[in-house]
Amino acid sequence: QVHLVESGGGLVQAGDSLRLSCAASGLTSNTYVKGWFRQAPGKEREFVASISWTGSSTYYADSVKGRFAISRDNAENTVDLRMNSLKPEDTAVYYCAAISNGKSFTSITSAYEYDYWGQGTQVTVAS
User: Fold this and answer.
1) Helix or strand or coil: residue 122?
2) Mind giving me the DSSP string for 60-111?
3) Are 19 and 83 in contact (CB under 8 A)?
4) What's the burial of 23, exposed, middle or buried (CB within 10 Å: 0-12/13-18/19+)?
5) Is 112 helix (H, G, I), strand (E, B) or coil?
6) How is residue 115 annotated by DSSP?
7) Which helix (H) or strand (E) element contains residue 36?
8) What is the pLDDT of residues 93-123, one digit of tens each?
9) In angstroms, what CA-CA distances link 89 with 14, 44, 62, 79, 124?
10) Is 40 exposed, middle or buried (0-12, 13-18, 19+ CB in 10 A)?
11) Once rounded to an integer, what is the mean pLDDT over residues 13-33?
């Protein structure tokens, strides 16, 4: 069974930083494309960041570019999201996700492309 578990969420003040982590188990390899999405109340799930299987290519939503950084450690089978200069509009449940190894996809930023999802971790940023 493929299982993704996020950790690191919490309540912070605007301008603070957080690091989210996602540990994976049950994958046939550690080289799946992985990403982070978030969903705020009353809004659709939106793309935050993704990283290629080698870690050499990263993609960010315009709203977080320059503030967030995604990274992965294939040896530890983890992917992190470092969030700096947090804003109230960053408040959401954050999910990590992965695309099946070898699967063709059209958009690395689309939630519909991802096959496996974690349970989510709440991030709340107070003004």
Assistant:
1) strand
2) E-TTTTTTEEEEEETTTTEEEEEE-S--GGG-EEEEEEEEPTT---S-TT-G
3) yes
4) middle
5) helix
6) -
7) strand 33-39
8) 999 999 987 788 889 899 999 999 999 999 9
9) 10, 14, 13, 23, 9
10) middle
11) 87
Residue with tokens 């605007």: 14
Beta bridge partners of 81: 20, 70
Which residue type sits at 20?
A: L
Q: Do 103 and 124 meet the contact criterion of CB atoms below 8 Å apart?
A: no
- What are 20's two structure tokens? 């989210």
d(C-alpha 69, C-alpha 89), whole Å: 17
Q: Which residues pair with 116 in a beta bridge?
A: 98
Tens of pLDDT, residues 35-88 = 999 999 999 999 999 998 878 899 999 999 999 999 998 788 899 999 999 999
Q: How many CB atoms lie within 10 A of CB 75?
A: 7
